[in-house]
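Researcher: I'm preparing a figure for a lab meeting and need a structural model of a single chain. I don't have an experimental structure, so a prediction will have to do for now. The sequence is pasted below. Please return the structure as tokens so I can convert it later.
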Amino acid sequence: MEPLAADDPRQVGAFRLHSRLGSGGMGRVYLGSSPGGRAVAVKIVHPELARDPEFLARFRREVQAAEAVSGAYTAPVVGAGPDDSPPWLATAFVAGPSLAELVAVSGPLPEAAVWRLAGGLIEALQAIHGRGLVHRDLKPGNILIAVDGPRVIDFGISRAMAGTAVTAARTTMGTPAYMSPQQAEGREIGPPSDIFSLGSVIAFAATGTAPFDGGEMFSIAYKIVHAEPDLTRLPPALRGVVAGCLTKDPARRPTLAQLMDAVVGGSASLPGVAPGTFWPDPVAAIVARQTTPVADLVPAGGSAAGGGPANVTHTVRPAGLSAQRTDPPGPPVPTGPMGPEPGAGAAPPRRAGRWPLAVVGGVAVAAALGATLALVLRSGPSGPSHASGPTVSLSHVPAAASTPATAAASAAGTPTTSASSVAPASSLIAVTVCSEPAGGCNDPGASQIMEVRPKTIGVSGDGSGFVTALVWSDWGSPRATATGTLKVDDCNPDCASGTYTSYPATVTLAGLKPYGTGLEAYSTIVVQSPAANLTYTYTRDTVP
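Model: Understood. Here is the structure written out token by token.
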């Protein structure tokens, strides 16, 4: 929690803001209150997202659908301004730690508490799926633990974030250890994807570790798609429930109704809890100790504390009186049929010899939205060119012709600046690069792996090689460079359990090309590691 800064708004719709809870991929998150005193979490969209028409259209549809979700174990949407400047979303504030925080501080939950958690999460997903939504990012960080039960948050919003090229480096479509195989392979997903994630969450709550967690992110994703989980640490009854959720074929996973029957049967022999309470002892006491009262989240002196004088009244500009809804929400706006997941019917057509594997980092919740890593592993004939030693030079790339801004200036006889000081035109939203060039980034939907200053770039379609910990220089200029670490997997006995060897490496980018609206991407990518005697060069299919 932080006091409001001088540039933070004090009022959003009908909600008065008191403190900042966090900031990250989607924007800033604030603690607010309604005129009636109800505590809310207000999320104000990042300006870059607010300029993306595709995001705004999806955000508007998904917010309207999410407003209709009403479940005892979801944090409901209580207000939204999708047409305001900037757009915003308000949900009921939940006082309590996330499941991730609870387990990190107090350890795995006892079996009785895990069964209670599972029942609450199933009810939450029933409410979400019943309105035509798929959560897409169910994980311990998106589950808040209140004294009266769990609350699932951020349902529906990840779909709005999907496909926005400008935000690929800021947003998440799933968290590696909790993704379903369908997410990992970049397929269309439906409710069974959330059930797979639910199995991983239940296993984490009972053991402190997700079934596929551990190792490099590519290894995690490989195991999710190809390996069987180790569930030996789970109690036998829970083991059967989790194993059903983690079935690779989505058509063979249990339904939520079947899971609820399993929870009823599995918990029947365990001691009950007192009427009016949710968590069994000692979990109830632990949750109460880790719950911060709302009053303690408001800085001394009120909402103006730490943020300038009390008469500062920054507000979000409303689009009209209808932006803040006071009537009960109506039925959701249809977002299109969800249809069967691949496996239940025909799989979508895919290019021969390629399997997209989207690996993305986690979004923190209410308290802080996290940054994302979006990576795609692919294999195919259009892979990199390999050379022995650092033999590739980018000196042939004409820097002056790399950006539309400098090219136009040259044509008009206007002097241009040096490469290191080139500034993008005012209409330029972002400069990106393909973070997984081994498979190419010119397919539909590839904009999701175009990143701004990526921390990792994959150099092998099977996940056996990637350069990570990248530190960039001159980003946005015609020629950008980075230093990092190349990791190469010996794939012995297979790539999921092989050993990585690290080598120092450099990455050089050139050949800026426009794509989309207000976006540019580097079209030439060279990864060099003299220590490993390896060079990877990509010049084709690197821009959508």
